[in-house]
Structure formats: structure tokens, C-alpha cells
# Entry
Amino acid sequence: MKQKTVKAYIMITIGTFLMALSVNFVFEPFHIVIGGVTGIGIVVKEFTKQLLWFQNGIPLWITNVIMNVPLFILGVIIKGKRLLARTAYATIALTLFLSLIPIKGVLSHNLLMNVIYGGGIMGLGLGMVLMCDATTGGTDLMAMLLQGGIKHYSVAQIMAVIDGIIVILGAVSFGIETAMYALVAIYITTKVTDQIMGGLHFAKVAWIISREAEQISDVIMDKVDRGITGIESVGMFTKENKTMLMCAVSKKELVKVKEIVKTIDKHAFILIMDAKEILGEGFIE
# Structure
């Protein structure tokens, strides 16, 4: 258990570093407001550049602290202490990295490529944090707390509304074009985060209906070295009982499976489906 905990905190550290890197190297230098507390921080920094104490605007890490402290206090009161440990660590780590990593747009000279890189790096970092049952506070914690009072809306729906308002603030501050780039970054971040959360070990599932099910299964198990599950089924048009085969294979093995099936029974029905992640013997233990 301790080893798993250590690994989780290492992943959170790497994840928050990547998130801070994307903010300080892409989103802040180019005023890309993608939502969240960092998005609020970018807008606040722009509007506070004339302050005597902060001639360059209030730094993002300060906004991060100011926004998250009251949210955490409310979180402890409403949700209890169990909410805090990893989320508190992730928030502190992100704040620290935001203050230490220099602010400079150096990933690419092309703005669109910067947005793509930034969205990808942010999605990778956020996915690593979420995989460890943590968040970085901010709008996701805010949405979680608000959802307690408006239970007919999901946390995801509330987050979408909050982040949408922040993106609109960014559009007012920096223009519509910049807001459109922010939407591209949000899309990429979401996609990458989903892939990290869902797993990167893609495979295929083949469903095979044939009168030669037994022969096909024997050859696949022998030639491809994959297990097969037989499921008794009934064709609703013919009312004929058949054995439907289900086989999980890699993308490379799928070609061989289709060749085997069509060689044995050219009239076989094959349905191929994507599997984001497969756990078990022959795949990921």
C-alpha cells in the first residue's frame, strides 16, 4: 500500500509539473484562457498590471492560492478531511511549479502549434493527476461543492458552465480570436485526458458468427495464440441456434484472425469493435 501511495504522489508531482509547464510556456504568454483557476489568473494578471505592487500583474501562483484556500476550507467543512490529502498536495505542487517555471512562449513560433502542444501537455498532466484520485482544486472542487446544493446537475455540467464563463471573460479581455484558440486547447486537453484515464493500450474485439465456429476457434487458438469465448445465440430471422465467438486481439493480430475466418467460412459474419483497454492474461496483468 505504501509503495502505491509513493507512486501516486510521484505521478501527481510529474502531472502538476506538466500542467504548470503548459500554463507558463503557452497559455499565459499567449493569453489563452482555457478555464479553471489558471484561466482566472491569466485574466486577473492582465487587469492588475497597473497596480503599484504588481507592475507586471498579480502572478498566477498567487491567484491560485487566493482562490483555492477558501475552497479547501469549505471542502473540509462540507465534505470532510478525507477530501484533502492528495488534492491538497496536487494544489500545492501546482502552485509551486507555477512560481518556479519561467514564463516564456518557447515551444513553437506558430501560435496554433503552441496551442496544440499546450493542450497535449496539459491533458497529459491532468490525466496523471486524476488517475491518482486527486484534483488540483480550482473549478473542479468548486463544482463538487456547488453540486451539493443543486443535485439535479452533475459535477461535469457545473464545471462546463464555470469554465465557459471563464472562457467568455478571456474573450472579453483578449479578443474572440484568442478565445477560439482556447477552445481548441480545451478540446485537445479533454481528449488527451480521456485517453490517459481510459488507458493507452488499445486493442480490438472480434465477434464472429459462423456455422464453422468450432473449427475457427481451434485455428485461431493454435495460429494466433488467443483465447476465445463461445456464446450460444439464436438468429432471429432463421431461428437457428449458433455459437457466436468473442476474441480480443491486438491490431496486428486482427488481420490474421480475419484471414482465418474467411478461409474457413467466407459467409461468416464478423463484427470488429474498438477496446480502449483490456486487462487480463495476454494483455495487461
